[in-house]
Design a protein that fits this description.
Pfam families: Hexapep. It is an enzyme of class 2 (transferase). 21% of the residues lie in helices and 24% in strands.
């Protein structure tokens, strides 16, 4: 015999679940860090529209951390300046993050010496950037007890860094670079390149003379024509491939949208 459903218990469970979700959403909103509501944090700079999502990762040395405007710092992201908290790091910022940067959930940016992330960089989750590495010169001492080596890190504007990538001390990454997921980057990476592997190497690059080499395997995205409204975009999302191709060919959203109405009229 199937067990009879306890309607009252089920109702209470649903109510409790909704309460938990609503409460957690309130905690996330209230615990997030912004320029207007920095909480206990005293960043050297925190731009307008920037938000550090709650729960935060480890954050210390924030007087030497400068974050630009309209940045999104995901949950559990670690941002540190200096080897440990409560150090005096001098008059200049140690960690600089430009405008419009996105740091994915669980990422770490460890700036024991200067780390610079250019504007409009997008990081996937669990990216690790560090300006410090352990040294192992003395074979008779535990590696963790040997003084680390520090080298500045610079990531140019407009880069995309994939999930789980590691940026090592001394890395110099140019403008609009793609770092593949899981790549381990050291040394210098030129502008407009794609790097992958461990250690990372250039697998594709763009130059004004030759374009992308090797050539891209996928066609470029079709830009949205001028004058297209949000309502038209919602309608276009329902179109078939033929109508989308016609839009790309004619640039007329009304003509393409008219194709949406044709099946309805026929039926």
């Amino acid at each position: 015999m199937p067990k009879r459903k306890n309607t009252f218990s089920s109702w209470r469970s649903r109510l409790a679940q909704r309460a938990v979700h609503a409460g957690w959403a309130w905690v996330q909103r209230t615990g997030s860090v912004t320029a207007a509501h920095p909480g206990r944090f005293r960043f050297g700079a925190l731009g307008t529209g920037t938000r550090l999502a709650f729960p935060l990762g480890t954050v210390f040395g924030e007087p030497w951390i400068h974050v630009g405007a309209h940045c999104i710092i995901g949950e559990q992201v670690t941002l540190t300046a200096g080897l440990m908290p409560d150090l005096d790091l001098g008059p200049e910022p140690i960690l600089r993050i430009g405008d419009g940067v996105v740091l994915g959930r669980g990422s770490h940016v460890i700036a024991d010496t200067t780390v610079t992330i250019g504007s409009d960089c997008y990081f996937g989750p669990y990216v690790y950037v560090t300006s410090t590495n352990h040294s192992y010169d003395d074979p008779h001492q535990p590696i963790g007890k040997q003084w680390p080596r520090m080298h500045p890190v610079e990531i140019g504007p407009g880069c995309w860094v994939g999930t789980g990538a590691v940026i090592l001390p001394g890395a110099r990454i140019g403008r609009n670079v793609v770092v593949a997921a899981g790549a381990v980057v050291r040394g210098t990476v030129p502008d407009h390149a794609v790097v992958a592997g461990a250690p990372a190497r250039v697998v594709r690059r763009w130059t004004p003379a030759e374009g992308w080499q090797p050539p891209l395997r996928t066609p470029p995205p079709v830009p949205i024509p001028d004058g297209v409204t949000p309502g038209q975009l919602r309608e276009l999302s329902r179109l078939d491939d033929e109508a989308v191709a016609r839009l790309a060919e004619t640039g007329d959203p009304q003509d393409a949208a008219g194709r949406l109405a044709e099946p309805a009229a026929e039926s």
